[in-house]
Amino acid sequence: MCQDGYAVVSSDGVGKFEVAFEALAGSAPGKLQPGTVAYIGTGGALPEGADAVVQIENTDTLPPGPDGKKRVRINKAARGPGDDVRAVGSDIRAGAVVLQAGGLVGAAEVGLLATVGATSVQVHQTPHMAVLSTGDEVVEPTTKTLGPGQIRDANRAMLLAAARGTGAQVTDLGIARDTVGQLEACLERAIQAKVDVLITTGGVSMGARDFVKLLLERHATVHFGKVKMKPGKPLTFAILDTPGSAGRPSRCMLVFGLPGNPVSSMVTFNLTVLPAIQRLAGWKEPGLRRVHARTSAAIRLDPERPEYHRVTLHWARPAGAPEGQVGGELVAVGTGGQISSRLLSMRSANALLELPAVEKTLPAGSVVSALLISDLSGMPVPETPASTISAS
Amino acid sequence: MCQDGYAVVSSDGVGKFEVAFEALAGSAPGKLQPGTVAYIGTGGALPEGADAVVQIENTDTLPPGPDGKKRVRINKAARGPGDDVRAVGSDIRAGAVVLQAGGLVGAAEVGLLATVGATSVQVHQTPHMAVLSTGDEVVEPTTKTLGPGQIRDANRAMLLAAARGTGAQVTDLGIARDTVGQLEACLERAIQAKVDVLITTGGVSMGARDFVKLLLERHATVHFGKVKMKPGKPLTFAILDTPGSAGRPSRCMLVFGLPGNPVSSMVTFNLTVLPAIQRLAGWKEPGLRRVHARTSAAIRLDPERPEYHRVTLHWARPAGAPEGQVGGELVAVGTGGQISSRLLSMRSANALLELPAVEKTLPAGSVVSALLISDLSGMPVPETPASTISAS
């Protein structure tokens, strides 16, 4: 493998040479005699007898000789044997492991697999996720005018989009009214559809009419039904085992009963559903990535519950650093009021600050941990200069 | 809107109260008399007469009174009017702008749109991208045994995956042999398919048989055909205008002639094709995000061409910082040999260091700019502690 140019005997140096033949990519190579050169295309195999390549920029084409043969002037000699030649195996050695199990197969990995001819590889099955909204007050987003106490169903479209974003197969179970009958029918549909993860929203608070909790207590094993966190206190998790029967293997469905408040449901989705999906999809290290960020404003902490505070992270020069210095410090900017129905606080949020339950106000400039909930590679970045490294 | 609990007249304080009625989510509220309370579910509307809510945790259910009416003990009084009540409009004010044009519509944004009943919004059309590999030496990845000089087509599968990752509609144009006829046929297929962006690989070096360059010079306007960068020197960009005719509007197709080396094609895809796709898809700020990172090893710079050096970024505590301090400094770890055919150097790379063309070796610990080419939220993170802010 080599660059476009002329295959040469490196000891021949500069001068005028006859172009003996063309060594083209995909064709078998010829044999080169000293004192002559061979045209060679990118990817062409080095002809026998040649030991280096001179790039085309370092040559000039000459008029053909009296015998009609092509001729070329080499202006800059090869530095020695092997110049501009890539040895077979310099990319990937025979027998080398090109990918480890448990990694994501992205574009570069697809290319690697194609290179080594691995056109069929074992991957984890795509998890199947279903989303169900519940509540008598919840109406379709298409509803023009809301009746008293009614709210449009933000959760379902949002969680369906988030679920699709994980690569999962997704089923929309609609809105169930607050009756045990409707909920049981939806649960049965999820079982029939062989759903791996069922997400419900609403119906998990402590109220007498919180039917999702009642349903799960009746049909599944509830592992927790209340979490000391803000938002997301009513978060409920259950596992429903479907016994096998003739022709139907036993299955297990994870059920996340997310709170009805849209922000609570989105935060708890990121903190609990996403890692579960990643685990089912075979990720070696599921879960949100933790970074550290400096706060840009004072934050009053909740004395009773640890809070997941929605912020937008930006890159910034560390405070006090000299003008020319650039560094990777992250600054957390709040996304507005944090009450749990305020979906505006999720807009453009790319991280959740992990704030402890302490009776105090956290001053601006504090460094706190943050969990990434969105792709930072698309986040806003203030104009920063590219590298200008002096030749000192 | 309020939490599960009892709607009260806040001045009534603690004590035993009759539960006058239930104010359920989705039903019209009743009217509350002082000295009584009303059960209220999450999302229920505050009854007339009530001015606060006491959460269910701060109450005890009592045996019914002699009249058979439900009774409850309030153990912790509301702090005053408005306690645990969310005013109408506290989430989104009437007339407020919830989203600006030019942003990505992610899950949270879908939820916001559903909340305000915006079930139909204008979005940019998905760009249509086609991928074509070229070269007599290039064979399908399914080829078991390679002939002399043959290589399996890594580029096409890789670029198709990368193109799909941008959300674009994708067409696979296969492999074209090094003949003008085959290339012209493929170009015509792309025009017929109304492709917005055509990506080719190979055939753009300086060689006499670099047919893609010849093809583009004949049929399109070549804007550049060589770039001073490493890898990616042969990168070629052209625009092909298809004149309108009866029943067919004029169209414009962007053509990126990427180099045939897999790493060169992947790097130039990220640096040039991706921002073009983002622009076509309506991104307000297309392009890779620039961060700054500290190098973990010495890097020998190329004296002639600026280099895009493939690295994996990790988070690390800044060097010299005390043990307890955590910060967002990024450390760049090389992904192995950087020669342009070595696809292993792309595996797990999430950034490209921007290295200037200078005759020097960059010492380990230098801070250089880096362009993000992958989602950092999935990148490896060393175990870092969550926030533990003392109550000082």
UniProtKB/TrEMBL annotation, chains A, B:
<dbReference type="GO" id="GO:0005829">
    <property type="term" value="C:cytosol"/>
</dbReference>
<keyword id="KW-0501">Molybdenum cofactor biosynthesis</keyword>
<keyword id="KW-0547">Nucleotide-binding</keyword>
<comment type="similarity">
    <text>In the C-terminal section; belongs to the MoeA family.</text>
</comment>
<dbReference type="Pfam" id="PF03454">
    <property type="entry name" value="MoeA_C"/>
</dbReference>
<dbReference type="Pfam" id="PF00994">
    <property type="entry name" value="MoCF_biosynth"/>
</dbReference>
<comment type="function">
    <text>Catalyzes two steps in the biosynthesis of the molybdenum cofactor. In the first step, molybdopterin is adenylated. Subsequently, molybdate is inserted into adenylated molybdopterin and AMP is released.</text>
</comment>
<dbReference type="InterPro" id="IPR005111">
    <property type="entry name" value="MoeA_C_domain_IV"/>
</dbReference>
<dbReference type="GO" id="GO:0061599">
    <property type="term" value="F:molybdopterin molybdotransferase activity"/>
</dbReference>
<dbReference type="GO" id="GO:0061598">
    <property type="term" value="F:molybdopterin adenylyltransferase activity"/>
</dbReference>
<keyword id="KW-0067">ATP-binding</keyword>
<comment type="pathway">
    <text>Cofactor biosynthesis; molybdopterin biosynthesis.</text>
</comment>
<protein>
    <recommendedName>
        <fullName>Molybdopterin biosynthesis protein CNX1</fullName>
        <ecNumber>2.10.1.1</ecNumber>
        <ecNumber>2.7.7.75</ecNumber>
    </recommendedName>
</protein>
<keyword id="KW-0808">Transferase</keyword>
<comment type="similarity">
    <text>In the N-terminal section; belongs to the MoaB/Mog family.</text>
</comment>
<dbReference type="InterPro" id="IPR036135">
    <property type="entry name" value="MoeA_linker/N_sf"/>
</dbReference>
<keyword id="KW-0479">Metal-binding</keyword>
<keyword id="KW-0511">Multifunctional enzyme</keyword>
<dbReference type="GO" id="GO:0005524">
    <property type="term" value="F:ATP binding"/>
</dbReference>
<keyword id="KW-0460">Magnesium</keyword>
<dbReference type="InterPro" id="IPR038987">
    <property type="entry name" value="MoeA-like"/>
</dbReference>
<keyword id="KW-0500">Molybdenum</keyword>
<dbReference type="InterPro" id="IPR036425">
    <property type="entry name" value="MoaB/Mog-like_dom_sf"/>
</dbReference>
<dbReference type="InterPro" id="IPR008284">
    <property type="entry name" value="MoCF_biosynth_CS"/>
</dbReference>
<dbReference type="Pfam" id="PF03453">
    <property type="entry name" value="MoeA_N"/>
</dbReference>
<dbReference type="InterPro" id="IPR001453">
    <property type="entry name" value="MoaB/Mog_dom"/>
</dbReference>
<dbReference type="GO" id="GO:0046872">
    <property type="term" value="F:metal ion binding"/>
</dbReference>
<dbReference type="InterPro" id="IPR005110">
    <property type="entry name" value="MoeA_linker/N"/>
</dbReference>
<dbReference type="GO" id="GO:0006777">
    <property type="term" value="P:Mo-molybdopterin cofactor biosynthetic process"/>
</dbReference>
<dbReference type="InterPro" id="IPR036688">
    <property type="entry name" value="MoeA_C_domain_IV_sf"/>
</dbReference>
<feature type="domain" description="MoaB/Mog">
    <location>
        <begin position="130"/>
        <end position="279"/>
    </location>
</feature>
